[in-house]
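To close the chapter, one final illustration. This time we ask the reader to focus less on the individual chains and more on the assembly as a whole: which components sit near each other, and how the overall shape emerges from the parts.
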Amino acid sequence: MKVIEMIAEMKEFVTKVKRQGKTIGFVPTMGFLHEGHLTLMRKAAEKTDFVVASIFVNPLQFGAGEDFEEYPRDLERDLRLAESAGVNLMFTPGVTEMYPSGYGTTVEVGSLTDKLCGRSRPGHFRGVTTVVTKLFNIVEPDIAFFGQKDAQQAAILNKMAADLNMNLEIKVVPIVRETDGLAMSSRNKYLSPEERKAALVLSQGLELARNFVAAGARNTADLISEITDFINREPRARIDYVEVLSFPGFSETENMHGQVIIALAVFIGGTRLIDNMVLEV
Ligand code: AMP
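The assembled structure is written out below.
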């Protein structure tokens, strides 16, 4: 697996790959790889001829007081794992390579960004859409792979690619979970053993919702209050949001019908975790 830090070298390499007529699959990450990331990489290897992944902890998508500095990093381990998952080229730019002094352009999607994580983390999605646009321009992928774990992010990136006529396809890969249900996340590393147990309220809250819907629940407010009560019984949990929205439109509905997404953001101790489930009602 080749590792490149500089944008100019990436562009040269990508030009060569394209000249060989190969399709490029791309998996952007912030590193500290887990089975969720590796699943995206394997999917990319299955669907395209040449797999590029990136590791870049993007300062632009972290708010003041968030965990940019503490975000877990382990490049050597990541490189080993990525190679074993079929990545051909890993792009690992530094912050000043991506945002040199005087950098002044951002990309902002005007819909879908004002709710859920967009409301809790102002500017977060502007950081995501800006860095992903830059990465798309550097890597020129035919297909880019994102996780349903970040369902709102995937929807926003889809909208961005469509609105800006980007010449690529976006594929969304299902959430990969630990055997006990916890959605895999690099941030799970922050959890103490007690918090790790408490974190199960997210996936269990979603399972509870699934059961309520299967039993005939249709009122959105009632379902939200059932999930909220369940999560609030865990003393280590503090809810950021519990929402039930239409899917893929992410609009509010009084009564559930068709596809809905149940989306959660919950602090477990100091760690903010997200999870979601899409249900056909
Ligand atoms: P991150 O490194 O957290 O920015 O994630 C990089 C990519 O991996 C994003 O597209 C995420 O949605 C995806 N991802 C993260 N966790 C999971 C998971 N548990 N299952 C599937 N995809 C994931």
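The domain at 2-173 is CATH 3.40.50.620 (Rossmann fold). Residues 7 and 113 are 28 Å apart (CA to CA). With these observations in hand, you are ready for the problems at the end of the chapter.
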